[in-house]
From TrEMBL:
The chain crosses the membrane at residues 247-266, 278-303. This is Pentapeptide repeat-containing protein. Residues 205-232 form a coiled coil. Gene3D superfamilies: E3 ubiquitin-protein ligase SopA. It comes from Microcystis panniformis Mp_MB_F_20051200_S9. It holds the Pfam family Pentapeptide_4. Keywords: Coiled coil, Membrane, Repeat, Transmembrane, Transmembrane helix.
Length: 315
């Protein structure tokens, strides 16, 4: 069978067609050039021990339940693909880049992830043991935005880590690098959020999905309550009338005017002197009242106009 037919089958064949043809082959199956797969369904394909040419790419592909035992996927690019339930034991992923990939419930026993770049990858409840992972000794493997609740340490799924609860922030990275003492895990767990705090047991009291969902609902309620309170405070601050200089200043001017006229009246009206004409005194009083009233009306109008203008500007 020619290599061209291998490439064509990988691009077009169904799972049954490929599996039947593969069983008839005796030699190791290899592609001789890099291939680009987009939205290719590989569910239930037997791709075990197939050697993919370096720099092949897989975009939006489905590997659910795929047999990838011993498959060579060295120096490939995998984006937005789902490997849920796939068997990747002894798979060689060295020097590859995986982004937005779901590896949940997969078997990663003896997987080779040396020099791999892992970004937004899910490892939830996969089978993986740091003692059986080929991991770069000089920390060339990159992990970023990794998601994992817990993992199983053996194929029979009788052992898990963490022993109870879920991984805390940054713990999976230390776990996969073999930096956690598996014989005494609780004393080695740390919350790596930049604070340097040691592991706190109260963060690990959520042991079931029901408790986790309840805690999430409570967090969402408190978040919405806080947003509501912040909105109410903004509305209150927006509608509250605050004393402003443009309101206080005219009132002060009016008060000064009244004080000046009152002083004049006191000086002019002297009960012990009758030389001052009554008509003259009445004229002064009426003039002061009219002037003060006009000043008060003008001040209040000015203050109201400024207040209305400020409200319109805020809106």
């Amino acid at each position: 069978m020619s290599s061209t037919n291998i490439n064509d089958l990988l691009q077009k064949a169904s799972a049954n067609e490929w599996n039947q043809w593969k069983q008839e082959q005796k030699e190791t199956l290899k592609t001789t050039n890099s291939l680009a797969f987009s939205r290719r369904p590989f569910q239930k394909f037997d791709l075990s021990n197939v050697v993919f040419y370096p720099y092949s790419s897989f975009n939006d592909c489905c590997f659910i339940g795929t047999d990838l035992r011993g498959t060579i996927l060295r120096s490939v690019t995998i984006n937005n693909s789902d490997f849920t339930g796939a068997d990747l034991s002894k798979t060689d992923l060295s020097s590859s880049e995986l982004t937005d990939v779901n590896l949940s419930h997969t078997d990663l026993t003896d997987v080779d992830i040396t020099y791999v770049k892992l970004t937004k990858v899910k490892f939830n409840q996969c089978v993986i043991n740091p003692k059986k992972v080929n991991f770069s000794e000089i920390l060339k493997t990159e992990l970023k935005d990794i998601e994992c609740d817990f993992v199983y340490l053996n194929k029979s799924k009788t052992e898990r880590y963490p022993p109870s609860g879920y991984f805390v922030a940054g713990e999976f990275e230390k776990f996969i690098k073999g930096e956690i003492d598996m014989d005494n895990p609780q004393t080695n767990r740390k919350l790596l959020d930049g604070s340097g705090d040691h592991f706190r047991s109260e963060l690990n009291i959520v042991n079931t999905d029901a408790e986790r969902n309840q805690l999430q609902n409570e967090v969402n309620f408190l978040r919405k309550r806080l947003e509501s309170m912040e909105l109410q405070e903004k509305i209150y601050n927006h509608t509250r009338v605050k004393p402003r200089l443009e309101i206080i200043l005219p009132i002060c001017i009016v008060s000064i005017v009244f004080l000046v006229f009152s002083s004049i009246l006191i000086n002019k009206v002297d009960k012990q002197k009758i030389e001052v004409s009554v008509n003259y005194d009445v004229g002064i009083i009426m003039g002061g009242l009219l002037t003060g009233s006009a000043a008060l009306i003008a001040a209040l109008s000015y203050a109201k106009r400024n207040h209305t203008s400020n409200q319109n500007n805020r809106e």
